[in-house]
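Notebook p. 47: complex prediction with 2P0.
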Amino acid sequence: MKATARAHTNIALIKYWGKRDESLILPTNSNLSVTLDGFSTETTVHFREGLKEDSFLLNEQKVEGAALGKIAVFLDKVRALYGKEIYAQVQSVNHVPTAAGLASSASGLAALAAASSKAIGLSLDNMELSRLARQGSGSASRSIYGGFVEWQMGEREDGLDSYAVQIADQSHWDIRIAAVVLSKTVKKVSSREGMRRTVETSPFYAGWLEQTAKDLQEIKQAIIAKDFEKMGSVAEANCLRMHATTLGANPPFTYWQDTTMRVMQTVQNLREQGIPAFFTIDAGPNVKVLYLPEDEAKVKNSLQAMEDVEDIIISKPGSGISYM
Ligand code: 2P0
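Predicted complex, structure tokens below:
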């Protein structure tokens, strides 16, 4: 009862920002991401009779506390599908070229969903797998697929219609995504806490929801038509709107640092020079820059010239779940 799976992380171009059901992880809006080939998690799950609890090794280090708790809660859902109490040894390796806090729960929970369901003998299709991964971490539902992926929010209370679908695979469009790793990042509000506080208290949240549904339709058309300016400008505006909701929360907060804003400025300067480059930012200070392969040297040089940029990790659209 052992299986190994690999998943890549993803970056949202239309953000998932808020839950309508915290326990099933059902979002308030449909959202869309691109899977990144530069970051992945490989996870082995071994269910064994006689174990009294789950255990977790991450990059060969024993993990306990809240991180183990998240895994055990997720494995409870897999055990419930299987119908029997049996515990597992979980071993994960994060393939992230730097220790910069970029490893996301998306690749981790997607790999765990695939490996654990296979190990326990369930054979789930991608829709079922996406629905399962969603219950570990919302963004993990999208990492089941490669390329451009939409997580459809669904309407049901039981979440059966809330899962991701592929809009276009990784060979559809050769774009680049540079993850700009900043030095001296400060401790952030977790995305779970940040989205909860925003949904509950920010008067800007209603405006965010209204516009994001329109953004999603526009970006899907842009992706299919390979209209880079359109895709980039919609993604950038959507990111700015998501971050604007946090300033309206009570207590207010922001994920941005001074360095975050300087990278945003650099990207805007590139555009003024005629280079189509766009940024997006998740629940943290690091910035991801979208650009076309022919502009790589100029984009990289501008970012590398900046103070406080520690690393630049370049991805292409990556693949979905695979089994080892
Ligand atoms: C996203 N983020 O769409 C958004 C944009 C952060 C900002 O999904 O609570 O780790 O486990 O469902 O998926 C990060 O949140 O949150 C996230 P949970 P998750 O990528």
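Notes: The domain at 2-172 is CATH 3.30.230.10 (Ribosomal Protein S5; domain 2). The chain has a mean pLDDT of 95.
Next step: compare against the earlier run before touching the bench.
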